[in-house]
Amino acid sequence: MSLHHTYFGHQPLNGHHPDCVAAGPTGNGGWEAAIAIDEIPFVDPKTGDRGYRRECGLRLLCRSCGAVIQLHADDADALHYTNVTELGYGSKPERCAGMWLHPGAPLLPGEGPYDYYVTDSPHPPADESQVAGVISRFVTKRGAKQWLAAYGQRQGGGAISRTDEHFKTKAAAVKWITATRAAAESTPDSGTASGDPAPEAADQAHINP
Ligand SMILES: [Zn+2]
User: Fold this and answer.
1) d(CA 170, CA 156)
2) What is the Å distance from ligand 1's center to 154 Cα?
3) How far is the CA of 64 from the centre of ligand 1 (A)?
4) Ligand 1 center from residue 13 Cα (angstroms)
5) Which of 125, 126, 171 is nearest to 149 (CA)?
6) CA of 108 to the centre of ligand 1 (A)
7) What is the rounded distance in angstroms from the CA atom of residue 90 to the CA atom of residue 106?
8) What's the 30 CA to ligand 1 centre distance in angstroms?
9) Residue 20 Cα, ligand 1 centroid: separation in angstroms?
């Protein structure tokens, strides 16, 4: 799953009644989560063999407002238990070169995040305007681990610009992003010609997301 989908492809459930007190400040608290695994008798139409197939269900229920959200799948293997290390998203951000790194998923289990969103805040970015850039792992032909850097993030995904340069450390890649941003924001007319928000508007978005 891409870094962009991990951070911006999910929406709050918004399943509670508007007056629900259990929903809490996020509007998304108070859910009681439960699963069901059912074995359904099954006859193979070709061979006549009898067997079972396993279905699964996920139920979210609020005892305060009575809202219920149900998800059903014909295949119990659709239920996947994982954790924030495997997902990247939800892991603690990392301080690096004056910025914050928000991890994506590893390409292979246990090898550490493949890429990171770079932001000014320890809070996960709420939208693309809060992303200063992306750094991602790169392995040279000789097997050395290095980093690639891309500046900015367009709505819907994709960097505003990127460099072919390889960086030996995450900090060096982050510094390229902050320097590129500073240069873009100090250039008169930068962004306005292409319809992007003016630097002042972008700063405002950081203060009031
Ligand atoms: Zn509720």
Assistant:
1) 25
2) 35
3) 5
4) 11
5) 171
6) 38
7) 14
8) 7
9) 5
Around ion ligand 1, residues with a beta carbon closer than 5 Å are 16, 20, 22, 62, 64-65, 67
Local confidence pLDDT in tens for the 209 residues of the chain: 799 999 999 888 889 999 999 999 989 999 999 999 999 998 888 999 998 889 999 999 999 999 999 999 998 888 889 999 999 999 999 999 999 999 999 998 888 899 999 999 999 999 999 999 999 999 989 989 999 999 999 999 999 999 999 999 999 999 999 999 999 999 876 544 444 444 444 444 343 33
Q: Read off the pTM.
A: 0.78
Tell me the domain boundaries of the chain: 15-81, 84-207
Distances (CA, A) of 186 to 97, 104, 180, 181: 21, 30, 10, 9
Residue with tokens 């709050």: 12
Q: Ligand 1 centre and the CA of 125: distance in Å?
A: 26
Element (H, E) at 84: helix 84-87
